[in-house]
């Protein structure tokens, strides 16, 4: 079984002799960030370069209700990865039907077991997690199966007032 820790150790060993030639290293190996963040609405930050299993993701939606906000997510990759999903929490206060104001996230691929069969599987990758978090602001925005019921009901009652509250949260918490 390949784990993140063993892959990182293996990559460090491979990179060692090539460290003296940065040009060949950069052409040979595309950074994880560049692979994951093709669209440009996400950025990865490793607060501690010695803890590659812990990183922060910033999602900056370029369309929809959340356009213009910067939303921070904390991601911790457990030792048992890829048999279990990473643990993710939203650090930015947000008015969203699938994210609570305390940062809990309703995204099926972050669940070990899911009724709909779209939960975590060992074939899933961190790229899937980044894609899923980014999509929560566009095509996976789900008012029909909310975690934050109050936000979903608010949207059903008054879409314009919902939009105003989202914009207020962005101004106050997501800049």
From TrEMBL:
UniProt keyword ATP-binding, yes or no: yes
Keywords of the record: ATP-binding, Nucleotide-binding, Transferase, Ubl conjugation pathway
Active-site residues, Swiss-Prot/TrEMBL: 106
One Pfam family per UniProt: UQ_con
Catalysed conversion reaction: [E1 NEDD8-activating enzyme]-S-[NEDD8 protein]-yl-L-cysteine + [E2 NEDD8-conjugating enzyme]-L-cysteine = [E1 NEDD8-activating enzyme]-L-cysteine + [E2 NEDD8-conjugating enzyme]-S-[NEDD8-protein]-yl-L-cysteine
GO biological process terms, semicolon-separated: protein neddylation
Gene Ontology molecular function terms on file: ATP binding; NEDD8 conjugating enzyme activity
Nucleotide-binding recorded as keyword: yes
Boundaries of every UBC core domain copy: 25-175
Sequence segments annotated as region (Disordered): 1-30
Family per record: Belongs to the ubiquitin-conjugating enzyme family.
PANTHER family attached to this UniProt entry: UBIQUITIN-CONJUGATING ENZYME E2
Name of the protein in its database record: E2 NEDD8-conjugating enzyme
Species assigned in the record: Lepidothrix coronata
Gene: UBE2F
């Amino acid at each position: 079984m390949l784990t993140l820790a063993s892959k990182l150790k293996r990559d460090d060993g491979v990179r060692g002799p090539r460290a003296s030639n940065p040009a060949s290293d950069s052409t040979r190996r595309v950074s994880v960030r560049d692979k994951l963040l093709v669209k440009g609405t996400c950025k990865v930050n490793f607060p501690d370069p010695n803890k590659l299993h812990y990183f922060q993701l910033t999602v900056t939606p370029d369309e929809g209700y959340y356009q213009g906000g910067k939303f921070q997510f904390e991601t911790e990759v457990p030792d048992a990865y890829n048999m279990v999903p990473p643990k993710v929490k939203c650090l930015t206060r947000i008015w969203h039907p699938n994210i609570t104001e305390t940062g809990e996230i309703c995204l099926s691929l972050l669940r070990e077991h899911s009724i709909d069969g779209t939960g975590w599987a060992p074939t899933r990758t961190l790229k899937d997690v980044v894609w899923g978090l980014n999509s929560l602001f566009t095509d996976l925005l789900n008012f029909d199966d909310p975690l934050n019921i109050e936000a979903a009901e608010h949207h059903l009652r008054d879409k314009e007032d919902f939009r105003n509250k989202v914009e207020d949260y962005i101004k106050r918490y997501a800049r």
